[in-house]
């Protein structure tokens, strides 16, 4: 018998994997006389194709399932796909933009048609990739998280937990995508190092002929300030304890509070507090019972609460407000600054 000089893995693997599937070696039938062993695959997102992380994770699952099968257990490895709504929506929106189609021009039903088409295309690619890895899944049980069964189960459990008081609706600081107009999970925020500016701005002390200077990378949020914070052990600002300062432009009096959260070495050691638009400021606001002034609309434009630049985009306002602060004598100086900024 003549053997090939090189191992033709494509032909060999395709041959034996097809044989395994045709003979139902991976299909699990419940048997009361045998111990069950079930693994539900953490479903990969329908956002493209598999990466090395999927390969590692699924290989470990396959090893465990095959071992259980060889030990005589009824081993069932349930494959599936996750609709990953936010990530998938971003991919679909990007695809539509390349075709000259804006999401806002589509009805909900029309957009969903494009989303399902994306799932059908990339979902099948992912499943075929898993098969090429030799995954011993029970393919007859393949699930998609928006299938009637899983979707109904999620809704049922959600309602049950709500009725039992474990789920409630509250006010929380979240990551928000003003383009997609949707909330983001913490792990969906992509942080990038950005070269920007640090703006030093004067706040007049109420009833005194003096001012304090704060440093910020987001001067447009000044319009939502409800406090200025100092470190309780910072000797430079001890005389400001219990005082008030005026927020530039809007002349709103806000308290000077003390908290060890402030880093005396950063900027001037004086921190503007905007509870509606910063995670840490929100925590300070709750701790010190500060007012919360939300100055942004869902699309990132300023709303009526800002009083200035209503309806204008936040990045446009950043440039304009710096010019106004400078013209009215509030801007002390600007410095180059590098820091991490979240993107979606």
Structure description:
By secondary structure, this protein is α/β, with parallel strands linked by helices. The protein folds into 2 domains: 9-154, HUPs (Rossmann fold), CATH 3.40.50.620; 188-343, Isoleucyl-tRNA Synthetase, domain 2. The protein has helices spanning 9-22, 52-70, 85-98, 108-132, 148-163, 279-287, 314-327, and strands at 36-40, 74-78, 80-81, 143-144, 175-177, 182-184, 190-205, 211-216, 227-230, 244-247, 252-258, 270-273, 331-343. The longest helix is centred in the middle third of the chain and has 25 residues, at 108-132. It is elongated.
Write the layout of secondary structure elements.
Blueprint: H1 9-22, E1 36-40, H2 52-70, E2 74-78, E3 80-81, H3 85-98, H4 108-132, E4 143-144, H5 148-163, E5 175-177, E6 182-184, E7 190-205, E8 211-216, E9 227-230, E10 244-247, E11 252-258, E12 270-273, H6 279-287, H7 314-327, E13 331-343
Parallel strand pairs: 1-2, 3-4, 9-11
Antiparallel strand pairs: 5-6, 7-8, 7-10, 7-13, 9-12, 10-11
Structural class: alpha/beta
Kindly report how far apart the N and C termini lie: 59 Å
CATH class of the largest domain: Alpha Beta
Number of DSSP helical runs: 7
Identify low-pLDDT runs: none
Largest sheet: 7 strands, mixed
Provide the residue-averaged pLDDT: 92
The helix/strand series, from N terminus to C terminus, equals HEHEEHHEHEEEEEEEEHHE
Which CATH architecture of the largest domain would you pick? Answer: Alpha-Beta Complex
What Rg, in angstroms, do the CA atoms define? 29 Å
Shape: elongated
Looking at the structure, the CATH topology of the largest domain is Isoleucyl-tRNA Synthetase, domain 2
Give the strand content: 15-25%
- Number of distinct beta strands: 13
CATH 4th-level superfamily of the largest domain: Valyl/Leucyl/Isoleucyl-tRNA synthetase, editing domain
Can you tell me the number of structural domains? 2
The amount of helix comes to: 25-40%
